[in-house]
């Protein structure tokens, strides 16, 4: 493989550090000025992200105009040096990070705009935009670092911002707990990621992307495997993949724009970014790749099954996100040409899922914050824009021909069938089945919300469409879901050539392309049709008794119970036991000793007899002890 | 006498004079006495600032002080009054002077019951003399003397100004520490009588290593246990939660901020420096205990129901990282220990300040009775969240570096044992997130409890708090973003020390 080298950034590109700096500065202003910024703070927040977007576009085109667009590096300063551990603070703008920058700031700007309307009545709106900007800055740092330590900085910053945003409505106990849970599960993954970074340093003496990637082939395959799996653990935590998926649906307790920005378009894709960025490490070990594929396939099915049993509009979307990111993991795990496919799906998903989350927010806005899809129905008459835009997102995600999901998900399914041997059938089959299930649960969601009989709660008379500031972002994101698919599917692989190369050994899929496409369309239409048939007449208003699979799906396939039984309960007992030991064991020993000393001094008091001969005896005893110690020292 | 030597003496003399001044003032001039004491503390801090530029001293010894005072003290016993400051001790000296100054300033606005603030300030200054003395001493006996100076004033601070159960806590503190002192005394005695010198520079010199390996081990175990009590290292830590919970705010800050560091500093400078071969042999044991401290400390924190007690237990975990760093006996590990010391001093100091502020207002530290603090005291809970997040080791804030480097140092040592310890320590870092988030969840989030609702009018930060806390917030950011501020000083001396071990 050719060594990876980046050129130094100069000219206009030399200023791309502004991308994260602008939202960061804005966050600082919003959070430090306090109430003084209440009146205009939200506009500053929108403006800062929009500025970053415009700048990002100019950098994007500048990079595109370069002869060698493998990426430009910006050295900022020597950062830390401890012993042999040296890290330079530097940024990298290459095709991969450029793509992410446009997604983060582009979709981010629209969501910021929407939030101005959505958070209109919230007294904490300024603070909300402060956290929102902080998040964008951290996310940009994450994708712009030129080494793993910088990535880790952004990674943790993103975790912090999401904690603050999920528990934004901190008076709600469920929101406060959800924020905690998100940060914590992320931390578990982060510990793995951190160890991977230390391993890089211990084995390769560097954490710079270029040097790590160029050196990875020198390592033994065992080391590469462990390193890759630890990176995968970190990625799974951030992206809500098995086994660290439980935090993501709970994170829906945050305000809806947060769900759209963090849990659809940006933060949860950081795990995909990590693996896509570390592709030389994963390429170097096929076992690691297979594990990534397996995690992706498992998670995508899990997300579908659980999503089909949920009744909370945002939670269905959350499980859908878990499932769609499973597709992306599947893609990056397949490697080769599938990296680009996974990233296309990531971009397309960023548009349509953000649009649907914002659409869900718009529905809630008009329905007194109701989230139960059993209490919606027939809304298409009352909120036309939300209906149409959400409908386009729905068609896009289920892979309706011509919309973006069709161009992005379909090729991943084909790629899964291109693996060798029985794994092609296993993973390809999972991806195919997932397509059918996705069509089912998304259609169920869409139909129960917008169609069928009206099943509203009594307090709702006239559901209303949201104000323009909320519908305009909806329309723009919907346009993205429609048009982006075709454009992306042709341009992204070419754009990413400097990162992933253009030479890919093509396997023939185990079935022909056409057959797979037909099969997946059949699955999609079957799933959607079944859902319409089942839910056209509405649904029961309360949970009904159901078969074991549905019950299991309602309980998140018992994954929460598993965590509770295997980690939390033993942890609690261990904690209690340790506290007991601390109080009774160690402390008891010391207190006993103290009591003994106390009793001893009582007896000692009796030894103070006033007789010189007894004192002399004590002095003799002491002297013997000292002499004994000295002898021990001399001959020891 | 050079300026450096003058400043070195000033670091000890200024707080001593300040203490005498504050204690000698009559009761009706209590406030003036506190102002005067604070001025002396500030002057001491100023003297410490003199050394900020640092220096590179020529030479090849294991300890190369930037400035040194070496005069005979008790010639017959070949004891010398030998003081010096170098890159290992300087950050700790600076931290001590800064925290003492902030604590004295805090006492200008707020004196815990039963009043008599001038005596509290005087005791804080005596403590400062002892702690700085420990960090500056280059003579083993002198080191021991300063180590002991600290004991009684701390006892008095806890026993007089402490909470309801203060007497028991103070007694426990004294018993534990006396136990450590006895071992330290025997250890010092062993070293001095075996080598015929008490001079740390000579004792650390790899060229002269007269102690046999058995004797080294004997001395090292004694010294290490003595320092382990002070640090504290699991399982010798149980005095700490009691002392912290009962101590007044400024007492907790000094205790956690700098007093514990005497233990880790002693371990690094004295125990490892004087008995390097024994240290190398004992390293696995030390590493295992340190990792146990991280895990056990974290788990125990999860079950704590009282604010200050929880923070106290978190210290056990954090000092575990510091000790793990020392135990690896590598350059990276020592650096981790030093920056971990400083970061813990700043961040936990801030945490105890804030916890004190909360307890003062809500009149309770029980987590069950707190809640929704963001509603009534947004600034207070903002600082608490900042300190907690810094303490759980978020990159970009001070707490991150020590923990990350300690884990890295363990991996750098390699081998199954150290790699396992590294993995466990990394998991312990996740535990820190668990208990601090639980703390925030309980104290700042949720609906306001009656105890918290009551403080609507006093929710704002008071002037004393602004003065004492903002420097700590800024330092947390500064050390987090530019760790070279601390690491830069210690790079060379730490390399020299690591060389002593490998040689």
UniProtKB/TrEMBL annotation, chain A:
One of its GO terms (molecular function) is NADH dehydrogenase (ubiquinone) activity. It is found in: Endomembrane system; Membrane. Its main location: membrane. Keywords: Membrane, Transmembrane, Transmembrane helix. GO terms for cellular component: endomembrane system; membrane. GO terms for biological process: ATP synthesis coupled electron transport; electron transport coupled proton transport. The chain crosses the membrane at residues 12-33, 40-61, 96-116, 128-145, 151-171, 183-204, 216-237, 258-276, 288-309, 316-340, 346-364, 385-404, 424-448, 469-490, 510-535, 615-635. Residues 146-429 form the NADH:quinone oxidoreductase/Mrp antiporter transmembrane domain. It is a multi-pass membrane protein. InterPro entries: NADHpl_OxRdtase_5_subgr, ND/Mrp_TM, NU5C-like, Proton_antipo_N. Coiled coil: none annotated. Residues 80-129 form the NADH-Ubiquinone oxidoreductase (complex I) chain 5 N-terminal domain. PANTHER family: NADH-UBIQUINONE OXIDOREDUCTASE CHAIN 5. This is NADH-quinone oxidoreductase subunit L. It comes from Dactylosporangium siamense. The gene is nuoL.
From TrEMBL, chain B:
Keywords: Membrane, Transmembrane, Transmembrane helix. It comes from the Bacteria. Pfam families: Proton_antipo_M (PF00361). Residues 137-425 form the NADH:quinone oxidoreductase/Mrp antiporter transmembrane domain. GO terms for biological process: ATP synthesis coupled electron transport; electron transport coupled proton transport. The chain crosses the membrane at residues 6-25, 88-108, 120-138, 144-161, 173-192, 212-229, 250-271, 283-303, 310-330, 336-358, 379-411, 417-437, 466-489. The keyword DNA damage does not apply. GO terms for cellular component: endomembrane system; membrane. GO terms for molecular function: NADH dehydrogenase (ubiquinone) activity; NADH dehydrogenase activity; ubiquinone binding. The keyword Kinase does not apply. InterPro entries: NADH_Q_OxRdtase_chainM/4 (IPR010227), NADH_UbQ_OxRdtase (IPR003918), ND/Mrp_TM (IPR001750). It is found in: Endomembrane system; Membrane. It is a multi-pass membrane protein. Belongs to the complex I subunit 4 family. This is NADH-quinone oxidoreductase subunit M. It comes from Dactylosporangium siamense. The lineage of its organism: Bacteria, Bacillati, Actinomycetota, Actinomycetes, Micromonosporales.
